[in-house]
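Trying the structure run again after the queue cleared.
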Amino acid sequence: MDNLSLVYMNQPVDLDTLLSSGVVAGGTWFDPSGSPLSSTLITAPSVVSAYDYTYEVSSPDCPTSAAEITLVVNGGCDYLERGIYKLRVYNSECQKTFKIVKQ
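Done. Tokens:
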């Protein structure tokens, strides 16, 4: 394991952001079952567990190098059930209040 990240159930994750700096770009991500991913953007599983994702870079001149990222899904929170709030600020002499609106 090269990196470990704690995530919420169903949380969007960009796997590339979990790689260490200096990793060669252009590799392929594989899901925990070994299938290649079509995007670096995934949704964390909804089942609490640890999941290993593998990043591989191949080159005709060098052996394949790989990095393993482990996502640990926290069962204490489901990203889909979190409230998303937007802050609207009114700059007016009439309205000098803040209003928080759930969307």
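The chain has one domain: 3-102. Worth checking whether this holds up in the mutant runs.
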